[in-house]
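A quick word before the example. In earlier lectures we treated sequence and structure as two separate objects. From today on, think of them as two lines of the same record. Here is Phosphoglycolate phosphatase written that way.
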Amino acid sequence: MNPSDIKAIAFDLDGTLIDSVPDLAAATQATLKELTLPLCSEQQVRSWVGNGARILMKRALSWSMDTDVSDEYLDNAMPKFMQHYQEHLEKHSRLYPDVVAVLDVLKAQGYPMALVTNKPYRFTVPLLQAFGLDNYFCLVLGGDSLADMKPNPLPLQKVISEFGITANQLLMVGDSRNDILAAKAAGAASIGLTYGYNYGEDIGLCGPDAVCNDFSEILAILESRQAVLEH
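And the structure line, produced from the sequence above:
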């Protein structure tokens, strides 16, 4: 990745900007309880998130029932999960350190920014608004905004098209292999964050262009240390 090539940045949401697992776990546990099934732990939910709400619920149900879950059973459970998550949204989630400060710097430097998540769009916008992040992003794509979601490159290709840039001018910042694989497939650069949700795997094994332990390190990679000092 050549930092001077980067003209726009796409960010993941869960595990990148916001730690949303506590709310997702509460909704998952409430759904399992309503279905009179054994309850999972928050730590288990941390290992299940990243592929959208339906896959999260499928993993939770499969674990709780100790068997594969039929599409019909999952279809019945999803409205329950969606309702519970709507009720728990924003209650326990929290911003990761330095997120607002870094986004402020990047916005001041003129980077167009997109939010690309596998979370359903109906939950994404309220969550961004609750944490005051909605004004940073020119484009917000949820997991159901297009015909496919990460690791498919389609969402990042949409960002590239909307921003009028070439693939190598886009930087994808995320915490899971879905983010890195989507970036690779789209021809974009990528930064992998170590603190989020990646199924217990080292994000570096996915082959991002750079790895950051803290959100603030993104600025250093973009050669913006001086801009941080001056901000």
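Notice the following. The longest strand covers residues 170-174. We will return to this example when we discuss secondary structure assignment.
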